Amino acid sequence: MTTAPSHAGMWRRVLIEGAVIVVSILLAFAIDAWWDGRKDRVAERQLLASIERDLRESRAELMRVLLYERRAALFERLAAASPEALRALPDDSARTWLRNLFGTVSFQPFDGAIRGGDLSLIQDPRIREKLFVWIGRSEDLVENNPLIHSVREELEKAVGLEFLATVAGIPALGGDRTPALILGDLRSDRDVMSLLLRRSVLESVTSAKAQRLLEITDELLALLPASRDAHPAVDTTTDERSES
Q1: How confident is the model at residue 238 (pLDDT cuts 50, 70, 90)?
Q2: CA 243 – CA 139 distance, rounded (Å)
Q3: Residue among 105, 177, 100 nearest 145 (CA)
Q4: For residues 62 and 212, is the Cβ–Cβ distance under 8 A?
Q5: Interior CA angle at 39 toward 34 and 41, to 5°?
Q6: Distance from chain centroid for Cα 71
Q7: Which range is most confident: 6-10, 127-131, 195-199?
Q8: Burial 14-53 (b: 16+ CB within 10 A, else e)
Q9: Rounded to two decimals, what is the model's pTM?
Q10: Do residues 35 and 239 make contact, with C-beta atoms less than 8 angstroms apart?
Q11: Tell me: the pLDDT tens digits for 27-85?
Q12: Tens digit of pLDDT for each residue in 153-207?
C-alpha cells in the first residue's frame, strides 16, 4: 500500500532536483551573458573615446589641408601678374608668395582606433555605418598624396637650390637674386607655371575630398559623446581578480 506514494515522492524529488539543476545552469548562463555584455559595454566606451580622439586629431589635419584652398586663388593672381610687376614687390612680400606657393599639402589621418578597434562592439548602427564611410573617404583622400608629392619633387628640380634656399631664408645658399627677382623669373618660366597649374588642379581635388571627409567627421563627432555617455564607466578589475 505504501509503494505507490513512495514512488510518487521519489519522482517528485527527481523532478524538483532536475528543475533546480536546469534553473541553476540557465542562471549561470544568464550571469555569464550579463557579465560578458557588461565587459563589452566597457570596451565599447573605451573604443568610442579613442575614436573620438582620433577624429579630433584628423579634423585638425583636415583644417590644415583646407587652408591651402586659398593657394588656387594665389596661383591665379600669379598667372595674372606680369614678371615685371612681381620683380617690383618688396622682398618680404615676395618671400611670403614663394612660401605659400611652394608649401606642400597632404593628409595623414589619425585612424589607429578606427582601423585597429573592434567596430562590432559599437551598438549604434549609425556610428558603425558612418565610420565605414569615413574610412572609405579617408583612403580616397590619401590616394592623392603620392601625386602631390611627385609634382612637388618635379617643382624642386625645376626651381633649383637657389630658390629653395631663398624660401628657407638661407642667405649663404640663396645666391644674389632677391626673392622678388626669383618670383618674377619663375613667372616667366613656362615649365614651372605648368607644374604649378598641375599642382593647383590636384590640390583643388584634394580640397573637395577633404571637405567631404570633414563633413562625415563632424557628423561622427556629434554622435559619439551621446553614445559613449550612454554606457557609464564600470570598474571590472575586482571581478576580474576574483575570476583569476
Answers
A1: very low
A2: 42
A3: 105
A4: no
A5: 95
A6: 23
A7: 127-131
A8: eeeeeeeeeeeeeeeeeeeeeeeeeeebbebbbbbeebbe
A9: 0.70
A10: yes
A11: 766 666 665 566 778 888 899 999 999 999 999 999 988 877 667 778 888 899 999 99
A12: 888 788 776 666 666 565 544 457 788 888 898 899 898 899 888 888 888 888 8
Cell 628657407 belongs to 168
